Amino acid sequence: MTTVAELSNKHTVQWCPGCGDFPILIALKQAIAATGLNPKDIVVVSGIGCSGKTPHYLNTYGLESLHGRGLAAATGVQLANPKLKVIAVGGDGDGLGIGLGHFIHSCRRNVNITYIIFDNMVYGLTKGQTSPTSRKGFKTSSTPHGAIEHPINPVALALAADATFVARGFSGKLEHLTNLVKEAILHKGFSFIDVLQPCISYNHEQTYEFYNKAAYDLGATKGWKADNVEKAFKKAYEWGEKIPIGIFFQEKRSTYDDELPQDKDVPVALQPIDNVDITVMYDKYL
Ligand SMILES: Cc1ncc(C[n+]2csc(CCOP(=O)(O)OP(=O)(O)O)c2C)c(N)n1
Ligand code: SF4
């Protein structure tokens, strides 16, 4: 059994004091510990951003890839060795701006990875520009007169792209978030969590106070079942005085690696290569 302490390392965490990234990191550690997974079987892959630093702070395998390419790299790792548990993390700018295509395709392919968006509705690392989830009218250095675009709804987008596990968390509700991450890790297929996360430096609208007032637990709502995509859509658009958090939708479907003939017997990463004569390939292609 892995403990939270064993998942921690000595790297200095470089987030601003009070950043909503901290509770997500704790939730991730607690959830991994609760699943009983061995850290040597886990790979945490990120894009670039404040949130992209997460793999550095965990005692698992990790890869900080390129901005917007976390899911592409994570897919490669998972397909090369489906025995690994791959967790992709990144910001709303990373995953819903430059990386948006990867997000939609990962959902519909049902790649067997967990994907957590640290959704602070702003570009944190580059000092506070408007992101794809910023509210219309949100003033930043890149939109001094207010954002003119309508924001993306990540939960609705994941539902539309046929993800098999779609959830929303809030970094101010640690126990709830830990459970969500644990359920997402245990789900077979693409499990997505949009985590509402205050950026105390560059977003003074979606604060802890804002979410604390509005967030309520969908799972504790009488009669709620996360098995109906139409009902999930309706809930995904509830935003304002009340904001639902929890699992919106979950279903079983074969995963991308289930369908790949190359992965059926021995995964690519585990195939013996000692006796492979690569000079044949050199002669043919070089
Ligand atoms: C290809 C490329 N384009 C742009 C950048 C600059 N860049 C780095 S992080 C970032 C956005 C960060 O915002 P977000 O993804 O929301 O993550 P956060 O920092 O808020 O966690 C940008 C534009 C980059 N590193 N690479
Ligand atoms: S800039 Fe925002 S997201 Fe980045 S570490 Fe600071 S508070 Fe967190």
Characterise the protein shown here.
The chain is globular and about 65 Å long. Helix 9 links the parallel strand 9 (215-217) and strand 10. The strands form 2 sheets. An 8-stranded mixed sheet has the order 2-1-3-4-8-7-10-9, with helices on both faces. A two-stranded antiparallel sheet has the order 5-6. It has a single domain (4-285), classed as Thiamin diphosphate (ThDP)-binding fold, Pyr/PP domains (Rossmann fold, 3-Layer(aba) Sandwich), CATH 3.40.50. Helix content is 33%, strand content 17%. The longest helix has 15 residues, at 21-35. With 286 residues, the chain is of the alpha/beta class. The model has no long low-confidence stretch (mean pLDDT 96). It contains 11 helices and 10 strands. Helix 2 crosses helix 7. Thiamine diphosphate is lined by residues 48-51, 67, 91-94, 118, 120, 123-126, 131. Residues 15-16, 19, 21, 50, 120, 124, 199-202 line the site of iron/sulfur cluster.
Q: What's the structural blueprint in terms of helices and strands?
A:
Elements: H1 4-7, H2 21-35, E1 42-46, E2 61-64, H3 70-80, E3 85-91, H4 92-98, H5 100-109, E4 113-119, E5 122-123, E6 129-130, H6 154-160, E7 165-170, H7 174-186, E8 191-196, H8 208-214, E9 215-217, H9 229-236, E10 243-250, H10 256-259, H11 279-285
Helix pairs in contact: 2-7, 4-5, 6-9
